[in-house]
Amino acid sequence: MSHAQILKALDLDFMGKRHLAAAASGVVLLLCLASMVFRGFDFGLDFTGGTVIELGYEEPVEIADVSGTLADNGFPEAIVQYFGSRTDILIRLPPVAAGEATSAQQSDRVVRLLSQAATGGVELRRVEFVGPQVGEELREQGGLAVLFALIGILIYVAFRFEWRFALGAVAALMHDVVFTVGMFSIFGLEFDLTVLAAVLAVIGYSLNDTIVIFDRIRENFRKMRKGSVLEICNRSVNQTLSRTIITSGTTLLVLMALYFLGGEAIAGFSLALIIGVVIGTYSTIYIATAMAVWLGVSKADLLPAPVVKEGVVVDDRP
Amino acid sequence: MNRYPLWKNLLILAAVLLGLLYALPNLFPQDPSIEVTGTRDTPVNATSAAEIAAAMENAGVPVKEIEPIEGNRLLLRFKRPSEQLRGREVLEQTLADRYNSALTTSPDLPGWLEALGAQPMFLGLDLRGGIHVLIDVDMDAAVDQALERYTGDIRTELRKQKVRYLTITRDAGRIAVRFKDAAARDEARKIIRREFRDLMVTEGDEGSDFFVYAALPPPIQEQVKDFALEQNITTLRNRVNALGVAEPIIQRQGDRRIVVQLPGAQDPARLKELLGATATLEYRLVDTEHDVQDALDGRVPVGAALYRERDGRPILLNRRVIVTGDQITDASAGFDQQSGSPAVFVSLDGQGARRMRNVTTENVGKPMAVVFIESRTVTRMVGGEPVKDRVRTEEVISVANILEPFGRRFQTTGLDSSEEAHNLALLLRAGALAAPIEIVEERTIGPSLGQDNIDQGFRSVLIGLALVVLFMAAYYRIFGLVADLVLVVNLLLIVAVLSALQATLTMPGIAGIVLTVGMAVDANVLIFERIREEIRNGSSPQASIHSGYDKALSTIVDANVTTLIAAIVLFSFGTGPIKGFAVTLFIGILTSMFTAILGSRALINLIYGGRRVAKLAI
């Protein structure tokens, strides 16, 4: 097949560009971190607490009318916006101020008010209410989840490979997490629980990629008698390149389907994964591998393991 | 070479057939059905089915089948939705006092499939619509209430034993009893130690006063909290059953939370009102010996308490309660026959009835009051910290002279509306909450949004699958088609495992399936790239297949284990929808390893194995 030939012909000097890549990554990560510190996040309801109500109207409705009705009836801080179409609106209420109604009952009052004010029918499509203490817990748990995932992976990779590889892998993962999360901060995209889940999936995915290349480096260290560490790493990246591109490609294909067809509910989730898959592919080469090289992996580190038998005996009879 | 032994092929075939079997229930149509649960006093039993069948036959409603289902419930199947609705009317008109009914649907599976335990996938609330609430139980209040009960009991006990005390108060998590002299104090301490073994008893002197302190030791506090949580779950279950919702889920979460999930429920306002309500009744004698005005000026007489009626008028009631809501075994709403005003008819348990009879016999001609008590907890943010406020309202809803001794059953009037009477009756029937609760999270999904989510999810799975299938076939030709086939089998197995485990499928769960589709081909890509490499290195086709699979194996396992770690972490930290994502990701990784390694190898072996091959279509 012709693609195979093209990919085979490639023998790109990935490792040669590693200083340039490190510099670029460094600048972007600094930007991400700066944005996370100074701009913060547009946290979703899950983390801030509050109420979100989605209503479906029979006829198109004006935002101004809806927020007017709400402001007149004790909800001046309600944020009203269209959700997908002019008949669908989304109302956000901040975590409750004191008052006789409990926060869980806020949504009932809003729905009753708007149903009475509307000319046509109004259908309740969704209510989500998260109490302030629950929001705090979810935030805490989310941070812990990322931390534990990283630790678990660090242990597994250190156990299966070698500590330099493990550090390289985790550096790449942190790079991916900071980058993906940073993009959500820089572009002011809503960061909710599903995005957090996507970030964790990105960790799994990016690692998947890293392991494949590490596996190949380990194999080549044992097999290739000649060549410097850098050359072998380069070789390995090139050998696995077509696989890297194809797997990223098929994953991106389905993620695109999810992003465009999956509806608003998981748009943020799909977007985080799309960003993560792209950046995860890059980081495998330029962060994980380069870091392992920089930390000084050598053939000797991986040699004590049993030597792979060359030339497997194959029975080729009919 | 490159041939699997027969048993391996059969094993793979068996796994696929088993998958097919358990995925099958998802294709069957759903019967319109009614789920029947007993009310508190009449659990569903053997005669219930016959009784309901008779009622349906009388009304001329054809029932397809009545079958008992788990959780002490009956399922009534109908052929048409119209018959289902008429069936419910019949139940509500003739048997409403004995059974609660809820509309639902149930898959019409053939008996042999049911016998295998095969069921369709369990859809999460975001897909089928419904209400999810997370309830926080106020544990401090539970402990306070326990202390309050002990305070009353100690007071009664000391009186009975004729030990004189000055005051008995509850503060800072302990009970303090004050005495005039050390002798009385020592006597009281002995009694309290003997009668209330659960309590931690200490003593102390302050100035000229002598004190005995009693507190709940931590293990007992834990017991009290645990009991409060379990009791609340029972009460909430009773309340939810009365609402008529099929397949409700009421579960403990952690050490102070309760999850309530009602698939298909539509009215969150009513649900929340009912769940959080703590309305109950107390019957007390009116204190006619003292003056209300004195009490208003701050001189509340000993043994009395100041209350207000609904119109705001003050009234003095005896501190001792005759009967509380806990002793009410049954309640129903109706109207007072003379005045026509809304009323609640209550029945008391044995102890309550005895006490009520004694007190009313002694006090014929004197007024008795009914106190309506409602409490709720509200969380406010004060300076960034959540603060819980407890709001308790106690109103006297009716005062009437005792005309004759009360029996076990009697009526209470003074309610604002028949709706209030109805709700109060329901709450009294379901039992009181052992501790106040607060709703800290709510997620309601309307039915149309649920259906939209299913449609969108289904569409993205199909389109994603189609794109990957086309790409793989174009890029790897015969091998690509093999990868495609095992990918479809992989989807089938995911559905089968989800159905068999009855794991909840959520929207993020569908996203997990889509993601798995994209990543599942990775194993095959790794293998196929290896095979191509081997061919380029000059190996024979058979040898290339063999070493391609061999060499890719450890890489595939390593790569998948790390994703499994991420899935496990997600599962243990995630809630609701996130858990759904973790579950499908986890299952998807396992099934994809099986299909992509063993399944694809078996197919490749069937196609190329055991013969001379000049060139591979890869």
Assigned CATH architecture of the largest domain in chain A: Up-down Bundle
Structural shape of chain B: elongated
Q: Helical percent range of chain A?
A: 55-70%
Strand content of chain A: 5-15%
Number of strands of chain B: 22
Biggest interface found: A-B, 89 and 95 residues
Average of the residue pLDDT scores of chain A: 82
Describe the structure.
- The complex is a heterodimer of chains A (318) and B (618).
- With 318 residues, chain A is of the alpha+beta class.
- Chain A has 2 domains: 2-43 and 134-302, Up-down Bundle (Multidrug efflux transporter AcrB transmembrane fold), CATH 1.20.1640; 50-130, Alpha-Beta Plaits.
- Chain A contains 12 helices and 6 strands.
- Chain A has helices at 2-9, 18-39, 45-48, 63-72, 103-117, 132-160, 163-186, 193-223, 229-239, 241-261, 267-294, 299-302; strands spanning 42-43, 50-57, 79-83, 85-93, 122-130, 190-191.
- In chain A, the strands form 2 sheets. Chain A has a 4-stranded antiparallel beta sheet. In chain A, strands 1-6 form a two-stranded parallel ribbon.
- In chain A, a hairpin with a 1-residue loop joins strand 3 (79-83) and strand 4.
- In chain A, helix 6 packs parallel to helix 8 (193-223).
- The relative contact order of chain A is 0.14.
- Chain B folds into 4 domains: 6-24 and 447-608, Multidrug efflux transporter AcrB transmembrane fold; 29-108, Alpha-Beta Plaits (2-Layer Sandwich), CATH 3.30.70; 140-220, Hypothetical Protein, Haloacid Dehalogenase-like Hydrolase, Chain: A, domain 2 (2-Layer Sandwich), CATH 3.30.1240; 278-411, Gyrase A, domain 2.
- Helix content of chain B is 50%, strand content 26%.
- In chain B, a hairpin with a 5-residue loop joins strand 14 and strand 15 (314-324).
- Chain B is elongated and about 110 Å long.
- The chains are: A alpha+beta (318), B alpha+beta (618).
- Chains A and B meet through helix 1, helix 5, strand 5, helix 6 and helix 8 of A and strand 6, helix 9, strand 18, strand 21 and helix 13 of B.
